[in-house]
Amino acid sequence: MAKLKLPVPPVPPQLKPLPKRPGKVYGPQTPIEHAGEAAATAVGWIDERTSLSGGARWMMFRKVPKGTNWFYTLGSATMFSFLSQAVTGVFLAMYYVPSSTRAYESIRTINNDVFLGEFVHGMHKWGSSMMVILIFLHMGRTFFFGAYKYPRELNWVIGVALLILTMTMSFTGYLLPFDQRSYWASIVGVNINGTGPLVGPYLSDFLRAGPNFGATTLSRFYAIHMLLVPGAIAALMGFHLFLVARLGTTAPPWVRAKSSEQLREEKVSS
Description:
Blueprint: H1 31-50, H2 52-60, H3 74-93, H4 103-112, H5 117-144, H6 153-174, H7 180-194, H8 200-208, H9 215-247, H10 260-269
Helix pairs in contact: 3-5, 4-5, 5-6, 6-9, 7-8
C-alpha cells in the first residue's frame, strides 16, 4: 500500500507580495529598493538550490487543534531559555578560567570589571533555574494532556532524556564558580550519585576525574557543562521539534473529537 504524502502548506496571503500599482515604473528606483531586490535575489538563489522554503513552511504553517492555549507555549519557552543559556554561556566562557586557582577570581572579574558582566552572569545563573522550572512545567502539561500516548511515545522518551541532560548541565555548572558553597555542594552531589546501584561508583569516579575531588574535577565539569551536554541537548531538541511537526499537536483533553455521524453529516451537507 502506497504511503500518502501530504502536500506542503501554501504560503499565507499575508506573506505574498502585493501587486504593483498601475503606472508604476517596473524595477527598483531608490537605494533601499535596490538593497531589497538584491536580498530577495540572494534568498531566491539559495532557496532554488536548497528548497529550504518548503521545509520552513512545513514547520511553521501547520494546523493546530481547537482549544490550543498558552500551556502549549511551555515547550517553546524552554527552547528559548536554552538558547539564552547558550548565548550568555559563550560570553562568560570568553573570560572564565577553568582552573582551581583562578576560577573564583575570573568570576569576580566578570562581575566587577567586565562591561555588563554582572548582567550576563545573572542572566545565565537565574536562567538555569528558569529552564529547569519550564521543562518540568512542559512535561507536566504533556502528561496531564495525554500527549505522551500513541504515536508520540518516542517524543516523550526524548523529553525525559532532555530533562536528565538539563539537570546534568545545572549540576555541572554549579561547581564552576569554585567557591566554598559550590565546592562542598558538588562533593555531596557526587557522593549521592555514587550510591546508585551498579554504575554509581563508576559514575562518581567519572565525575571526579579520579578517586578524589581535585583540580581535574573542575576541568571535567567544565567540559561536560560547555561541550558534551549542550551538544546533546541541541541534537535531541532538533529531533524533538521534528517529531512535533511530523506528528502534530495533541488537542486538550476537554475538547471532544467529532463523532463519525457529525463528520458524515458535514460531508453530505458540503
